[in-house]
Amino acid sequence: MTFIIKKxxxxxxxxxxxxxxxxxxxxxxxxxxxxxxxxPPEEAPVMVQVASANGNFASGVLDxxxxxxxxxxxxxxxxxxxxxxxxxxxxxxxxxxxQFLFSVNSTDVLAKKAQTEAMINQADAALLSAQKDYDxxxxxxxxxxxSAKELDAMTLQYQSAKASAAAARAMRNEVSAQLAYTxxxxxxxGTITQKLTEEGSMASPGMPVLTIEQEGNMQVSASIxxxxxxxxxxxxEASMSVAxxxxxxxxxxxxxxxxxxxTGGQYTVKLSVAATDSKQxxxxxxxxxxxxxxxxxxNGNQDSGAVMIPVKAIVKRDQLTGIYTVSSQNTALLRWLxxxxxxxxxxxxxxxxAKNESFILSAEGKLYNGAxxxxx
Length: 376
Fold this sequence. Notes:
Elements: H1 11-36, E1 46-52, E2 59-70, E3 73-76, E4 82-87, E5 94-95, E6 100-104, H2 107-142, H3 148-181, E7 183-185, E8 190-195, E9 202-203, E10 210-213, E11 218-225, E12 237-242, E13 247-256, E14 266-272, H4 275-278, E15 286-294, E16 307-310, E17 315-317, E18 320-326, E19 332-336, E20 338-343, E21 346-351, E22 358-363, E23 373-375
Parallel strand pairs: 1-23
Antiparallel strand pairs: 1-22, 2-11, 2-15, 3-10, 4-6, 4-9, 5-8, 6-7, 8-10, 11-14, 12-13, 12-15, 13-14, 16-21, 17-18, 18-19, 20-21
């Protein structure tokens, strides 16, 4: 059924107004939807610092323990056997070079010296007699009163007497040297650090009686295991901490012992200490050492070939370890790694990161896979 409403009908204005209201309502709803709909804010990129494996880092760090020791130290002994008659020093005494330290009984040496003096007198007398006979037979030979054979015999006798006299004097020099060994003096200026025997004890050649250490010149001795010694080089810098005096000092590797045959598989490394720092140190103090192992190519040291990165850059997820890298779209990309041994603050990467490849060292915000990043 169809209803026709004429314009002059009373319902026409009402319908016309209703349509206008409905149209306005739809328009207002449409405008209202556009104004209330909001786009999600764009996420700000995380500021990151990148580094290169073995590129941005000139060194790894090797932790070790060591002890302070004097650069020059000597065990003082005597070269003769005898009873110690006098010791003029004690532990802690400062001595000068050439200062008397101790003496050994020299009675038997003095007896040998007297014996050699008698031998010299006897040899001189025989030489004088042989020389007179030689001179006499030389004159007789010129006068043709003695034969050539007799002159030759006198010549040999004279030469033998001269040799005997020279041997007696050489023996006296030997005894004099032995007598000098019975009085022991300081080889250099320093401090007595050990007294290993007392007066009246028997001294033997090579048996230490005293130990003297030179003052003012100290060094640190450390033992390095075999799996780390190859990464050290002469001149590597070190930071050393002496807890007993609450002091931190700097040094350098000055000596590397290439053999561990007599040190139980540990390689002895000596580190220098500045003279100003040595004044507050005593031999035997324990030192905690951090040696900076230089690995950067082109600095005169050999590159070990290992890929090293800082431990602080490692990301751990349960039993997995990885590192963040920067993708071509400037987003963080988590990459899993297989790690090797840790050396101080550095760790070796066995697989997952190539040498000189970039990675994120630190970030100023939270990183996750796909996070936008910006390199500082």
